[in-house]
Structures are given as structure tokens and as C-alpha cells.
Amino acid sequence: MAKEELEGNTLSVYAYIVQADKPVGTRDVTRGANLSSTSVAHRHLQKLEDFGLIGKNEYGEYVLKEKTSVKGYVWVGRTLVPRLMFYSLFFLGALTAEIGIFLVSIVTGAFAVDASFIFLVGMTLIALAMFLFESISMSRKITDGHSKKNAEENEESP
Fold first, then answer.
1. For residue 55, what are the β-bridge partners?
2. What value does the mean pLDDT take over residues 98-125?
3. Is the pLDDT at 67 greater than 80, yes or no?
4. In this predicted model, which residue has the larger pLDDT, 33 or 156?
5. Exposed, middle or buried by CB within 10 Å (0-12, 13-18, 19+), for 130?
6. What separation in angstroms does the CA of 12 have from each of 31, 80, 86, 88?
7. CA distance 110 to 86
8. Secondary-structure breakdown of the chain: helix, strand, coil percentages, each rounded to the nearest 5
9. What pLDDT sits at residue 120?
């Protein structure tokens, strides 16, 4: 399988099928991945079938055959999470530790924060912001279609 081809709408369709955890039809995929038509959904389903990742059951519905690794992402259960999210969590932990050190220094009366500590906290904040922004952007590439569909349904309901 050419993993580099598993991107864009094909990746969204694949992620939808994995998350659905049940047989899905072409119309389900069209709605779930927010594709423009059933023919577009069918084309991406055919790609995934050619890769050997999905197959058809006796009713003609598509089912997951293999959960494969995707470049830049990690499977957590049935959810595809950007690897960068784990880096942002690391820097969140580092920032929490730095704030803890700062609070302990205030409580103990050893309030001696120098420029290097402020620089460290600033760099940690910048790294946290960058990794978080990029991981959210990567996550939206997959779930954007599903989120748009839910937003439209919520606007229509009184």
C-alpha cells in the first residue's frame, strides 16, 4: 500500500470508517466525511479497497479489514491523533512543572526568579503554542468534514 497516498479526503473516509466501527454504505460515508457526492465517496472507497484496508460484506457495505499506520498520526483506540499532540502535552507538563517551581519559590520565601527562568518559561510557552496549533490543524484535516456536517445540522434545528 502507498501510505503517502492516504491523505486528504481518502484519509477522512478511512478515519470515518474506523471510527464508525460498523459496516457503512456509500451514502453514510458521503454524509460522515462531508463529501460532495456519492460518486466522490465511491472513488475514495475504491482507493481504500485497492489498498486492502477495507472490503465489502455480503450486503455490499464497506467494513474495515486492516487498521494501518498513517504518517504523522497515532491511533488511540479508534481515533486518529496527530503525533504533535503528544509533544504539546509534553510541553504542557514542563510548563506545569515550571509554574510549580515558581509557586514553591514564592511560598518558601526563596523568590529568586532570574532572566534564565523567565526565558525558559517563555520558550516552553512558545513550543506549547506551536505544537498545539499544528496538532489542531492536523486534526481538523481529518475531522473537518464531520464537524461541518454537525454544525449545519445544529443550525437547522430550532
1. 63
2. 88
3. yes
4. 33
5. middle
6. 12, 10, 21, 23
7. 33
8. 65, 10, 25
9. 94
Shared domain for 81 and 125, answered yes or no, is yes
| Cβ neighbours of residue 51 closer than 8 Å, sequence gap 6 or more | 1, 2, 5, 6
* List of residues 6+ apart from 142 with CB closer than 8 A: 11, 12, 15, 73, 80
Let me know whether 80 and 39 are in one domain. Answer: no
Single out the residue of 58, 50, 73 nearest to residue 23, CA to CA: 58
Q: Are residues 80 and 25 in the same domain?
A: no
Asked if residue 133 lies in contact with residue 89, where contact means CB atoms within 8 angstroms, the answer is no
Query: Do residues 85 and 114 share a domain?
Result: yes
Write the CB contacts of 21 (distance below 8 Å, at least 6 apart in sequence): 64, 78
